[in-house]
Write a structure and sequence with these properties.
By secondary structure, the chain is an all-alpha fold. It has a domain of 156 residues: Lysozyme. It contains nine helices and two strands. A two-stranded antiparallel ribbon has the order 1-2. The protein starts with a helix and ends in an 8-residue tail after the last helix.
Length: 251
């Protein structure tokens, strides 16, 4: 135990100067691509790489979550899992059908983005608008998914699958489930098993059925990183206490 403490204190003390530099406020707050200030949102040191030109996608994401307010860490982790799965945090991500950090298709962007302040005519690669629109869109999908499944975990899976492939397919699979003997609409596996019967291709079913699980794994990875960040910051605090001649609280 003693040698572990010694190593921790040494690492923490070496990180104090770097952490203080990272935490120092900049002369002017960086701006998101649509001009709104990014208000000091930074992941703990070492969680993501250096920023070359302006705020990183992670910084914009955290600032957007802060802007929304009152969501809690679980909701933030869920959205981080979505962004990780959709674009791997690449602002310029583009597929044949979708663009940007949250991978909106043009029709869905046209429906959702005008409902986000300042984002009606925004660039489809604007990460600030993408994250805020993702939050708004997912709220709507989740509410509508609760009409399909009473189990909230299943409803969340349905909402995520709807984000990936459209709510209409999920509603069709739900209707099929209601008329299929032994099918439980609160069981995600039962619903997913009806994908081909609902009229979708094998490739579409494979992608859409696996999507909620991919997001959940990315969400768990983000939660783990957040826990690592807390440990780093705790180590910095311990190192600072030792440097100032105070006995650190190791509880």
């Amino acid at each position: 135990m003693l040698w572990q403490l010694i190593i921790l204190l040494a690492l923490a003390a070496g990180s104090v100067a770097h952490a203080q530099h990272q935490a120092a406020p900049s002369p002017s707050a960086p701006a998101s691509p649509n001009g709104e200030a990014v208000r000091g949102a930074h992941l703990p040191p070492g969680v993501h790489g250096p920023v070359r030109d302006g705020p990183s996608p992670q910084d914009v994401f955290l600032a957007a979550m802060d802007h929304l307010g009152g969501r809690g860490e679980a909701w933030r982790d869920r959205h981080a899992g979505m962004v990780e799965t959709e674009s791997s945090w690449r602002v310029g991500a583009e597929s044949p059908w979708a663009q940007g950090i949250a991978q909106f298709t043009a029709p869905t962007r046209g429906d959702v983005w005008p409902n986000v302040a300042g984002c009606g005519g925004a660039d489809p690669f604007d990460p600030w608008c993408g994250v805020l629109a993702m939050d708004l869109y997912m709220q709507g999908l989740y509410r509508r998914s609760l009409a399909l499944a009473e189990d909230r975990r299943t409803a969340l899976r349905i909402a995520r699958a709807a984000y990936n492939g459209g709510l209409g397919w999920q509603q069709r699979q739900h209707r099929l489930c209601l008329t299929t003997p032994g099918c439980d609409p609160d069981n995600w596996e039962h619903l997913a098993a009806l994908c081909r019967e609902a009229g979708r291709s094998e490739a579409s079913c494979r992608e859409n059925n696996s999507y909620p699980g991919k997001v959940a794994r990315a969400e768990a990875g983000h939660r783990k990183k957040r826990g690592l960040g807390r440990k780093i910051l705790r180590g910095v605090a311990i190192g600072a206490s030792v440097a100032q001649g105070r006995v650190p609280d190791l509880r």
